[in-house]
Amino acid sequence: MTSIALLTILGYVLAAVLLYLGLQQADTTTKFRKAMLIVSTLAMLGNGYLIYQNAYLEHVMGLNMSIFNALSAIFWLSTFITLFTSLRSPVENILLVLLPVTAVSVVLAQFFPDHSIVLHARNPALDAHIFISLVAYALITLGALQALMLSWQHRALHSRNPSGLVSKLPPMESVEELMFRFISVGFLLLTLALATGFIFIENIFALHLVHKTILAVIGWFIFAGLLIGRHVAGWRGKTAVNWTLVGYSTLVLAYFGTKVALEWVFQIR
Predict the structure, then answer these.
(1) Using an 8 Å Cβ cutoff, are 169 and 191 in contact?
(2) For a pLDDT cut of 90, what percent of the chain falls above it?
(3) Which of 81, 129, 172, 234 could form a disulfide with 196 if both were Cys (CB 3.0 to 4.6 A apart)?
(4) pLDDT, tens digit, for every residue of 238-255?
C-alpha cells in the first residue's frame, strides 16, 4: 500500500511537470500532452485502488468516509472528469492545480488515516446517495477552479499584462462556458443528492447533521440563483465568479467544515 501510494503521488507530480513543460514549449505540446495523459491515468489507477482499500471496510460492511478519504475521493473524481473532458474541450490547464492537490490528498488519506464509519449494511440507496454527493462535489469543484482561472484572466486583462501562463489559457469565453457547464451538471447532481438524502436518511436533521443539511441547502439556493441569473439576466464575468465561489465555499463548510467540527473538535463519529 505504501509503495503504491508513493508511486501514485510521484505520478501525479510528474504529470503536472509534463503539463507545465508542454505549456511552456508550444512546439512540443502534443508530445508532452500524451505523456501527461499516460502518467496521470496510471496515477489515477493507483489512486482508485487506494481509495477502495482505505474507504471500503468489508469486515463490517461499512464505508470509512473520514475527512481525508472524502477529500481523496472528490479530487480523484475531479481529475477523472477533467481528463475525460480534455478529450473534447481545452481543460488541461485546470490540471496544473488539480494534479498536485490530488497528490496531497493521497498523502493525507494514506499517511494520516482516520476513521469515520458510515455503515450502509448493503443499502444501495445510501450508497447511491454517497456516490452522487461525491460526484456533485467534484463537478462543482471543477466549476470553482474555472471561476478562479476566469478571475485570474480578468486581473491580467485589466493590468494589461497577459504574459506567462495566463497568456496560454483558453479564451475567457471558453473558460466561462466550461464553468457553467460543470456547475449546471453539478447542480443537478447536488439536487439529486439532497433529494435522496431527505428520502433515505432518516435522521437528516439530527444534531450532528443539521448544520450540514442547512448549509448544503443554502449552497443549493446560491447555485440555483446563479443559474437563474445566468439564464434570465445574462450574468457573467465577475458576478458569475463571485456567486460561484460563495456557493462553493458554502458547500465546503457544509461537508468539510461540519466534519472537522464534529470529528476533530467534538470527537463525534
Answers:
(1) no
(2) 46
(3) 129
(4) 899 999 999 999 999 988
Q: How many residues are there in the chain?
A: 269
The whole-number average pLDDT for the span 12-20 is 93
Residues 86 and 10 sit within 8 Å (Cβ to Cβ)? no
**What one-character DSSP code corresponds to residue 235?**
-
Q: CA–CA separation, 175 vs 150, rounded Å? A: 6
Angle formed by the axes of helices 29-55 and 95-111, to 10°? Answer: 30
What are the grid coordinates assigned to 44, written together? 489515477
Between the CA of residue 157 and those of 163, 167, 254, what are the distances in Å? 10, 10, 34
d(CA 164, CA 169): 10
Query: What's the grid cell of residue 70?
Result: 472524502
**Residue 108: what residue type?**
L
3-state secondary structure of 106: helix
d(CA 7, CA 5): 5
Here the cell at position 269 is 463519529
Over residues 143-155, the mean pLDDT reads: 89
Residue 53 has pLDDT above 80, yes or no: yes
HSE-up of residue 266 (Cα within 13 Å, Cβ side)? 10
